[in-house]
Structures are given as structure tokens and as C-alpha cells.
Amino acid sequence: MLVVMNTNATEQDIERVIRCIESKGFEARVCHGETKSVVHAIGIKETDKRDLKLLNGVFEVLKISTNYRLTSRSFQNDDTVIEVNGIRFGDKYTGLIAGPCAVESYEQMDKTAQELSESNVKILRGGAFKPRTSPYAFQGLGEDGLKILKSVADNHNMAVTSEIMDVSQLDIFMKYVDIFQVGARNMQNFNLLKELGKIHKPVILKRGLSSTFEEWLMSAEYIMAGGNGQIILCERGIRTFEHHTRNTLDLSAIPVIKKLSHLPIIVDPSHGTGLRDKVEPMSRAAIAAGADGLIVEVHHSPDCAMCDGAQSLYPWQYDLLYKQIKQIAPIVGKEIV
Amino acid sequence: MLVVMNTNATEQDIERVIRCIESKGFEARVCHGETKSVVHAIGIKETDKRDLKLLNGVFEVLKISTNYRLTSRSFQNDDTVIEVNGIRFGDKYTGLIAGPCAVESYEQMDKTAQELSESNVKILRGGAFKPRTSPYAFQGLGEDGLKILKSVADNHNMAVTSEIMDVSQLDIFMKYVDIFQVGARNMQNFNLLKELGKIHKPVILKRGLSSTFEEWLMSAEYIMAGGNGQIILCERGIRTFEHHTRNTLDLSAIPVIKKLSHLPIIVDPSHGTGLRDKVEPMSRAAIAAGADGLIVEVHHSPDCAMCDGAQSLYPWQYDLLYKQIKQIAPIVGKEIV
Amino acid sequence: MLVVMNTNATEQDIERVIRCIESKGFEARVCHGETKSVVHAIGIKETDKRDLKLLNGVFEVLKISTNYRLTSRSFQNDDTVIEVNGIRFGDKYTGLIAGPCAVESYEQMDKTAQELSESNVKILRGGAFKPRTSPYAFQGLGEDGLKILKSVADNHNMAVTSEIMDVSQLDIFMKYVDIFQVGARNMQNFNLLKELGKIHKPVILKRGLSSTFEEWLMSAEYIMAGGNGQIILCERGIRTFEHHTRNTLDLSAIPVIKKLSHLPIIVDPSHGTGLRDKVEPMSRAAIAAGADGLIVEVHHSPDCAMCDGAQSLYPWQYDLLYKQIKQIAPIVGKEIV
Amino acid sequence: MLVVMNTNATEQDIERVIRCIESKGFEARVCHGETKSVVHAIGIKETDKRDLKLLNGVFEVLKISTNYRLTSRSFQNDDTVIEVNGIRFGDKYTGLIAGPCAVESYEQMDKTAQELSESNVKILRGGAFKPRTSPYAFQGLGEDGLKILKSVADNHNMAVTSEIMDVSQLDIFMKYVDIFQVGARNMQNFNLLKELGKIHKPVILKRGLSSTFEEWLMSAEYIMAGGNGQIILCERGIRTFEHHTRNTLDLSAIPVIKKLSHLPIIVDPSHGTGLRDKVEPMSRAAIAAGADGLIVEVHHSPDCAMCDGAQSLYPWQYDLLYKQIKQIAPIVGKEIV
């Protein structure tokens, strides 16, 4: 931590800063610049920099350590690769996940999975517990939904991913689900993250609606600090002023996260745009930017979907998209199965 | 719902829209304007307007119903007043809550409560489970913290409020806490909101970091739909581009919420600004704007606080503030005990 | 315009709304729904919907006309194609513009142009008047800069684009520049836009830092209403909470604008990311999303650049990028010269 | 400037950073911490920190100087007080400005001024050149508007303020206007700011829609660096996700700016909220937070206003507000004439 003093800070001001730094268990060292002095707080500890900021004569307090450690590139230089059902995410591999927003019935899942299997999909998504803004909206089929999802996936030799909303759902998810999803609204549900740190299954951690990259990595750090390093980060759009799209898909997350962290990063163009006709161009863009995967909403009959039909592709659209991105991936040094 | 057609929409486009509206269980009625036709979807149902937006010839789809019902002014015209330990929030009453960010020890709580009781504080705050961005930061004393909080409050004839982070903590909170707090990060933890709908104690529901007023009221609607109408909304600052303050306190929330809803709204100037010297002016501003209360962080010795000391007032500062706002409140037709 | 009445609005409330609508020169027509009535204001006029919103019994006022007309897809269905020096922007054509942030000297421009001509660049960019946040920063070479830019471009058979900051610079820009650029900070400099409506040269209109798509199109409308339809929209990143990148490049602008408007849209990945190593992936992504062009900062020696060197590519990097995007373009049905 | 090296940075990395720092004309000095080394760049120069950020082994580059100098509290410790027509802004003085959004006619201005003079208003506002999002909206009366404004103000012994949009309007503004206004959209119209640095009249500089405090002070710095220190900063709301209010009035600007700068800061609650019934509570809040003044839109007959009637107070509302804030001001140590 660096405490930058005001131009007109007195010797007493600097003394006070040094005492405060030392009282927090750091070593203090002063460097004098042309107009400003800087006091270094040497040591590795969590502390609140605002305590120093409020002292007399202090211009600014700067943290020089990242808070994320295990998830950082400097902790592990090689890309983490996560493999599920033969599909790999990370390094040169780009994995694909597809399926409807919500599990609605056995028939709906089976028809959709059947179509998707023809486009080589090996991991099936489907929500059983739905986080809805309104208490009056469809809340998902619950455990019955997970059973349908698992059973359909088994029939089609697919693995399964679904969103967990609460610690209390952990046991039933362990029974049915291969990859856990943490939704944007739960990115900082720290109790849930701690529990996911104890399991031995991959976790897709979606970026919060207005989270910074650092906060996102800190949430991943919660999981990794618990012992589970199988984390896939998922960019799904952030909130901005623009309302023509449901969210603003921040594709620069891909190169930025790849520099900061060794974890794979995938993109959800369905929530990221909210409209079917924007999913295709943004999916291609994600692949061209080097994404380690996509998770795309596809429904066998989107017009009848109970949830988010408007952002779900028709199966034939997914197939077309699949063919396009298979061409783009090798141009950027990536491989799609 | 209103489906506005494009200027050049055909009769067939309109027919298709009508069929889609009817298939969703609404009645359809067409109105022709000078350049655009509008199809009304008449009925009260949850539906996804994007399904219609994607149809040919559709310019825009507009919802004309609010999603919040029980929490709206049109459901209940009179202000809800919530009373705890003789302190009232809502209508002409302005209630005050104060205390440290986190419960650290019996001694710390007792000293702080002692000082606050001299400024007429009747409701004590203190966090026992702390939502921290970093897994390596102080996470709170847990149930021991709640015990200390309750015991100290009893000694000083105070009621108690603390933040609940997870459904699993519900039982122990029922034992110790008079007012439940839901933090900004949990504003859309829908499982938690549903459970809080079943209890018979007041809930302070903080606004999410980037939530709209409507989303906030929808979260309150979850609690109220469950049967618990004792909800106090709390503005605590939103995320903006500006980083001189921790958050940007949106005081316009006060007049806006008062128009939309009958629920009381209080302000947290401590998280809303993040720096002690901004707490005093923003507290006064909140009262002048007509807030139904304040929740302020005060620590008997902020420089030694384990958490958020930088935004905690010294007890003498709180006392000064108390005297100022007691003068301002009557000017705006409010009453502070 | 649609005026949605409250559930409990009285006949008198509706009457008052009708009178207000008529006093503004619209025709009023009432439609009754199940719970709410809607009054249509029929006619095409500019008006402030808040006047109606403040009337008793009004729930919401909704505009159903776009404010942009000439720039909208419904005014002109075919893509506008703009051609400069054999390079085309729009429809199936993707045009490329490259060059340094600022004109620094003849030598710098000449070296850069020489390198770029080997990568087939036909339009050279370079700033002569620089909008700098600080009055103490390098403000550009002014007219001398434009002379250098023009002279170097002539030598290399290139056309020229540069940013105009003020109406007073119009005459000298007409002498030297083939494509005018309006920067993000001037997107709503309406006096400047009006003057650019009178010229007969193409204008690149950059999106403001926090502008919506509609505001952007409204600014284009100023130019087009003046008589100049040669407008190229340029997405250059918006301001969000994230500071790892200088701005957040919103690539969804591409499919959204293409749906709303017939104007071509290009992308500036240099300002959009602010860091050289993010320019390449985001450029590829822009092309994959269907952009009609790119404007990229390239400097013959970025480490010595007087301005924005950190976001400028080395010429060899640009060449590599050029080869990649030439491969991606045909996959999405576009053509790069 | 401080260049923080990565934990695993090599000696060569540090050497390279030192050479780069020295090549930019700074002196370099290395400080070794427990895990990270920090290289100080000592000297006062404008430079782009990203050049250093891109070097191998660099973790972060931190600026430790403010870019604003003349406008900073450390340049001048005492509050700047600006006086116009006996009304003072700054230090313990709170000045009030009122009037309609736009000058519409002599009669409208005269009626409004007459009413306002009864509430002791001494400075009249009114727009003659209006920055409108749409080219089809009322653009103001131009110079005729300024003439009316000046003539009416003279009759009522008032001073006059109006918004200048462009350098070309400077001469006519000098004839009629006592205080220049720079609107939010022109906060970074640097050519205009430079010209305003040369005049000897006060300038109200509004905060941009998404500007940081630092950018705002940098724009003031442009004016002050030109020689004109009579600057009044005006908070008028920033753009956020919330649309119930036109903008989000950021009242924390008041205490923050007062700490950073010696310049007076006033508040525009009319644009800051956009709705008449929010103007009153937010005006009171601004005064309670310590604002140095208000600029409020008042129209003798808001329902007939050509522009922004919905956010204009009726004269009797202004009078009521005036009486309330006169009571609040002394509680916070301020004085209203």
C-alpha cells in the first residue's frame, strides 16, 4: 500500500501516517519525490485504506496488491483447462453449451436435446430454479426439472448444467448436475460461493450486472480458496444506459480476464443481448475475440417457451451458427469439437 | 400491453400479432393512429413482451401495468408506519438507527451503545455476518456477534437490527434480532426474500448497487406477497462512474418512492458515501428531502474499527448531527423523537 | 403518443387529458382496457410528454414514434454505401482506416503511411486538433498538422480523415480533409452538426461516452436534416464501471444500429479499449459481428508517440490483423479490399 | 507517478522501466517492498501512464498528482466568492438564480420576472440558444431572446444568465449577459472553455452527464488557466440506470468538490430531476448539504411553456421553497439574502 502525501504535508503528518501504518502491522518506509512524499506500507495484510485516507496531509492511498491470488495469472501461468463429457474449456479449446432457458417438460427437453445432438452439442443447459424479478412469474419446476434434465441428457449422452440459487439446493444439485451455474444476481452470494468451494464439480460463475473484473475474480477466489479450482467465468452482459439490448455484452472481458487470470472465460450471448437476432452476430464476435466457449439458449419451439423465448435460437439457427464459428475459431488459434 | 406497429406494417402483420396476443390468453383490440396502428392486449397476466417484439411489422411493445401491486400506492394510499421500540418510520415520523458496522466484542458494543443512548438512540445496528468482497477479510463473529448485540441492546433498552445473508441463518436471527436487514447484494436473493415473507418482524430492504426503483419494489413485493408487510426500504447509494465516494447516494429515491409506494424509505449515508466527512452533510440532505429515517454507522473509536471505520462517525459527531436534523425535520413536516 | 391512465382514474381525469392533448394539436382517441384506459394522441409533432405525465390520473405516457426519421430504416430500406478513394463502407463492404492518433511531424506521418500502404490502407487518419481533458496536454499541430496529413496522404495515394472540434475550423478542414470526424465529446455539439449538414463530404460521427443509440441517431439526424446523408456512425466505447479498459466497446451496437438505420457503422477498437493488446481481439470481434469498417490507430513507433501510443498498433501488428480479418469477413458475408 | 512492478518482475524489467521513465524526462527512484518493487517517476510533466503499463513486469502505474492545479484547494485554501448584483456564491453565502428554461416572449419573461422579484430573486435565467436532442425541436429565439432577457432584467433590477453553446456566440453574449452558462453537453467543448478563459465575467460550468469530478475540475482548469477565475460549478444530475427521474442528482458532489476545490458549487434541481414535484425536496436537500446556491426553473405558467414546463415550478411554489430554504440555510452555517 502506498500513502501519497499532499504537497504541503508536514513532517508531523508523515509521522502520524507512519504510526498508523505500523499500528496495522505493516512496516513503513518513506520516499520523497519532487513535490510529494510517499509512505510505503510494506507487508501483506487485508486493511481498509480509507483509514489512512482520512489522516491529515494525505492526498491519496493506493493499493498495490491484487486481492485475488489463486485465480491470478501470477499464481498459475498456464491456462486452466476444464473438461466435461469430452468438451474442453480453456487454452486452445472452445467448448459449447446449449439448451433452453427453463426446463418445462420432458417432451420439450427431449425434442430440444434431439435437435441439439445433431449439431454435436454434448452439454445441455436448462433452468429448474429460476431467479425471476417478479414473484408472480414462473419460478421453475424445481427438483422435478432437474430430474427431467438429467434423464433427457442421459438419453442423448450429454452432460448437464443448471443454475443453483441457494445453499439449501446443494444436495439435490449434486445428484443431477455436472456443472453448477451461479447466476449474475448471486455472484456475490458469498455463503453459496463458500459451499461451492467444497464440491468437486465445475462451476460456471456469471459476472454480476454491474461488477468489475476484480470483484468477479474475487468471487471466483471464494470458490478457489475453498479448494475447488474448476471455475469457468461467464460474461453475460452488464447494465448500461442502453435499453435496445437487455444488457451490454462486454466482450473485452475476454482479453482482459485472460491477462489477469488463468481461468477459462465463456460468453452467454442470449442474456447478453436478450434478442434472438443479436445472438448470432455476438456469438461470432465472442469466438473471434478468443472466448473459451459459449452458452447459448436454444428451444425446439421458442415461440412457445415459458421463459426467455425471445432470446432463444431455433435449432436450425444454432446449427448455422455452429458452422460459422467452427470456421472462425481456427483463425484465432482455437479449436471447436 | 400495447403493441405498436410499424408505419409500413401490413394487415397480415397485424393479424399475426392479434393471433399471438390471443394465444397468450389476452383479448386483442386494434386502434389506428395517423401513421401507426396499436394493438392492445387486454388482460392481466405475466408475459414476455419480447415475443411480440420479434414479430414482423412490430415497432415497439409497451407494458402498461406495474409489476408491483401490494407495494404500490394504488394498492394502499396511506403511508405504512412501522414502529419498533417506540421509534416510528413512515408518514410524519422519522426514525433513527445507529451503531457500528460490525460487532467486534462486548466491550466495543457496550461502549458504543452507552454513547449512543445519550443521543437518544433506541435501535442499535451491528453486523454479525459480513458480506465481504474478499474471502480473506474479516467475516464477522456469527451467532456470537448476535448474542453480544442482543445482550448489549437489552442493557440499554434498545432494539436491534442486523443483516441476514442466507436462508440458513433465519432461525438464529429470529432469536436475537428485532429488525432484519437485507443487504444490497442480496436484494435479489429471491429465496431469502420468500422466507422473510413468512416472518412477523420488520425487514429493512436495501437497494441493490445498480437496481432500478421498479426492481427494488419488486423485491419488496416478494416479501409482501408472502404475507409480511413490515418493509422499510433503504437507499444506500448506487454504483456510478465516480470514485471519490464509495457509492453515489441517490436522494431522489425519497420523493420518487414516496409517490410510487406506501412503504417508508430511510437512508444509509455511511455506505452511501463511504467517508465520515461526507456522512454529516448527506444525512442532513436526506432529512431535508423528507426521508423516513436514517441508519448511521457510529463506532466508539472508529480508528480501531475492524470494518468500515472510515465511514463511521465518532459518537460526538453523531450527537451534533442529531441536533442538526432535529432542527431540519420540522421544516419539512417531519418529527424526530 | 399514448397516455395510459391509472386503474382508478376518473372520467374527469380522462377529460382533462383529452383537452391537453387537443390543445397541443393532436387528435385524441380513447381505448378502454380491462383495468386501464389509454388515450391516443394522434398526429406527428414534437412535444414534451412530461406535461401529460403530471396530470391527475395519468399512469404513464409512452412515445410511439421515433425522433429520427431520415436516418431510420423505415425512411430508407437499402443500406447507405459511402465510398472514398475506392474504399466502401456499408452493405457488404467493410472499409479500413488507419493512422496515428495525432499528426506529430512530416517524418512521423510519412513513415507510418509508408508502412500502412504496404497493408493496403487507402484512408489515413491523424489528429491535428486534439480534444484533451487537460489544458496542459499536447493540443495538436492545428492547421500545420492538416497540411502535413494531406501532403503525406497525397504522396501515398491515400484519402484523409481528421477530427473537427469547432465550427470555426470548418473552412480549413474543407481544404485538406476528405472525411470529417466528429469526436465522442462533440456528438451533441449541435451547432457543429448543423454546419456539417451543409457540406458535401462524408462525416464519421462517433458515439458519445454515455449516449444511447437513439441519441446517436438523433445527432446523425441533425446532419442529414441539413442535407448531408453521407454519415458513417462509429462505435468507440462507452463509459462503464470497469477501468481495466479505457472504455467498454459495445459491439452490440453493430446489429442494433443495422436494424434501426440504413447508415454504415464502423468500430474504433483503439479508443474502445485503450490498450494495444486488446485492439487485435476486439477488431476481429467487430468484423465477426458484421461491422462496416474499422478505424485503427497505428504509429510507426508507438513508444515515441506524443499521444495515445499505448493504444496504437505497431505496423506489423496491423498487418497481421489485416490478414486475420480478411479471413473472417467472408464468413459473415462481407468483403474487405 | 509510481510504477508498481509484478511480484515476479526481473531486474531487467525494472531496468527497462527506469530507462522509459528517464526518457520521458523524469528522475527514477526504486523502492523495494516485501513482494513488490515500486519505481517512482519524480518530476512534474504530463505523460501517458499507459506507456509504462505496457512494459514487461509492470503490475500497475499510479498517478500521484492531480491534473487540476489552479482550481484545487491546495492552490488556494480560501473559498472563492463570486458576487453578481449583490448576490454572493461561495464561503458562507448561498445565491439563488431563477427563471424559465427558455425565453419565449417579452410578455412571458416580464410576467415571470415580476413574480420572481416578489420572492427576492436578483438573477434571472432564460435560454436563448437551446441545445436540443432533436433537430425538429424548438431551438430558442437566438439573439432576440437575449435582448428580451436583458431588457426585462433591467426593468426589474436583475442580472442575467444564459447558456452559450458555441464560440461564435461570444460577442453577442458579452453584450447582454452577466453570467455565462456552459451546459452539460459542452463541459468538454475545449475551444469554448479556452475562450471563456479570456473574458471577465463569471461562468457557470455544469457537470457533464457522465463526467467524473476530476474531469469537471479539469474543464474548470481550462477556464482558469486562461485567466478567468470566476467559475461557479453546477451539479445538474448524472446519467444512471434509473429513468423515473430525468437524471440522478448527485448531491455528494457538494461536500466532495468543497474538499477538492475552492470554487463555489451550486445545484440545478430542475434538470437534476426533470419533474416539478421532485424539485422542491431536492432543493431543500441541496441546501442542507451545504450548496453555495441553486438555479431553479420557474415559469409564470408552466403548462404553456415551450420547453421543460414539466420541470418548472409555479411562482408560488418557488416562493414556498424560498421560505423553506431560508430556514434551513442557517442550520448549516449558510446565509441566503
Q: How large is the share of residues in beta strands of chain A?
A: 15-25%
CATH superfamily of the largest domain in chain A: Aldolase class I
Instruction: Please identify, by name, the CATH architecture of the largest domain in chain A.
Output: Alpha-Beta Barrel
Instruction: Work out the oligomeric state of the chains in this entry.
Output: homotetramer
- The low-confidence runs of chain A, each spanning 5 or more residues with pLDDT under 50, are none
CATH top level label of the largest domain in chain A: Alpha Beta
Order of strands across the biggest sheet of chain A? Answer: 8-9-10-11-12-13
Main interface pair?
A-B, 48 and 48 residues
DSSP helical segment count of chain A: 11
Determine the structural class of chain A based on helices, strands and strand pairing.
alpha/beta
Tell me the span between the first and last alpha carbons of chain A: 46 Å
- Number of separate domains of chain A: 2
Based on CA atoms alone, the radius of gyration of chain A comes out at 23 Å
Q: Strand tally of chain A, please?
A: 15
**Biggest β-sheet of chain A: count, sense, barrel?**
6 strands, parallel
Task: Provide the CATH topology of the largest domain in chain A.
Answer: TIM Barrel
Percent helix of chain A, as a range, is 25-40%
Following the backbone from N to C, one meets helices and strands of chain A in this order, namely: EHEEHEEEEHEHEHEHEHEHEHHEHE
